[in-house]
Known about the structure:
The chain is mainly beta. It has five domains: 21-102, Immunoglobulin-like (Sandwich); 106-186, Sandwich (Immunoglobulin-like); 190-272, Sandwich (Immunoglobulin-like), CATH 2.60.40.10; 278-360, Carboxypeptidase-like, regulatory domain (Immunoglobulin-like, Sandwich); 366-468, Immunoglobulin-like (Sandwich). The chain has helices at 3-14, 346-349, 396-406, 436-445; strands at 21-28, 34-41, 47-55, 61-67, 70-77, 84-91, 96-102, 106-114, 117-118, 122-128, 134-139, 144-149, 153-161, 164-174, 182-186, 189-197, 208-215, 218-225, 231-237, 240-247, 257-261, 267-274, 278-285, 296-301, 304-310, 316-321, 327-332, 339-343, 357-360, 366-374, 384-389, 392-394, 417-423, 426-433, 453-457, 460-468. The strands form ten sheets. It has a four-stranded antiparallel sheet, with no helix packed on it. Strands 8, 9, 12 and 15 form a four-stranded mixed sheet that branches. Strands 11-10-13-14 form a four-stranded antiparallel sheet, with no helix packed on it. The longest helix is centred in the N-terminal third of the chain and has 12 residues, at 3-14.
Amino acid sequence: MSLLLILMMLAAEAAPAAPAGSIDATLRGTTQPLEVQLLLRDAADNWKTVAQKSLPAETRRVRFDGLEAGVYQILVRGPGATEHLATKIAVGRTDARHTTITIQPFVLAGRVTLGGTELGAGGLLLKHREFHSRSPILLGPDGTFRVPFWQRGTFSYNVRGPALPTDYSQMTELEGSSPGPLHIDIPDGRISGILRDAKSSQPVGGATVALQTNIDDREEHVRLTTGPEGRFDFVGIKHGRHIVRIYPAQHLEPEPVSFELTDAAPLRELDLSLDPGRSVPIVVIDKEFDPIAHAKVFVVADSKLRARVTTDEDGRADVPLPDGEPATLFVVAEEGPFAMMRVPRNEERGADDKRRLQVFVPSAASSLLIRAQTTDGKTMRPFSLLMRYNGELMPTAVAEELTEVQGLQLATGPDSEAHLRNIPSGSYEFWPYRTEAEAESIVAAGSTFLAPIQVNVRTGENKIAVKFASRRGGR
């Protein structure tokens, strides 16, 4: 055997086999010409088109070969914009899959109204929750629609029209042999406004406006971002109690605005002035003096969260601080413990107020296990922990960010234990609470009352046992 032949055989053995999966699909339920699209779900759960074929009316079978292993979506499209049906199928590297796709057309009819009255002409866009499926529907002058439809399942929908400055979005279910009718009545509540700089009166764009709606015992949340003109506009808002919170990029956060929308007063206009404070440049770095990109920086003054920013690729940010007040910076990054830095009032910093501050994220991590029990040795109902670190109270919003980014749980579990991992060493104080009202009262009291849990955390593992007086019903 020649050397060349041996090398060719070895190369053939080393080379991975080409994907050999296949899908053979039979289509039933329609005699229309069809477009069949094959999509593959990637690691990010997005659907990517890998093949597409056109079928004439007399052909009801389609085959795809040379497929790699994965989860595929077969999307069958008819001539109409709302005539399409998707289904999933898993394929192994060498699987030969056979499937039958039955199309069961139905007529989707309905009407869109605004506060019980005609919305007028506009558009309705239905998007399937899982599949790569979008169905645009034109509304008649009276807001009605009637279209052929193939897909069933859970959909999100967006309504647009001249009477709506922004799209109205909700979810709906289309199930059964003949789903519908789909009647959408958009609430007539509306909350709009403009954000301005308190000093220059210029509009503030790029700010996040969060709306919380309280109805009965539940909350609904929606967010918008102001444009260059500083405006925001919430439409289709239900009547009830509302709270508007502003999260600007370069201004201090104002106090939340609370009000109520009623049948007699369904509209609310807000003209809000934002305090720019004083801008202090910072850079967040690790022990090697390397910048930490995309770190969250929270500004706390008088135990209240006043601003939040995110560092850029170079670990830099311009942080708004309250003018004439000292402040504390809490920094949360994806890796490493949280960091804290005190910043004196501007008159104390003097000429250094424009010098870029270096905020170090410590590298040595510690952990703290808090074991709570009643004085009679029983476990306690789970509670949350309000934390003060090195004399500075950490607002609940910062603690929530730590939970989201690093998984740090400032709360006990069913075993009455709270295990705080990846925290810096230092002096810690904790107050247990179970409701937001309790947390607010602790913050309002400041340092009037000593914390029931106090511990000096050193590098490495730390443990502490805390006993609470027994109360009727358990604490």
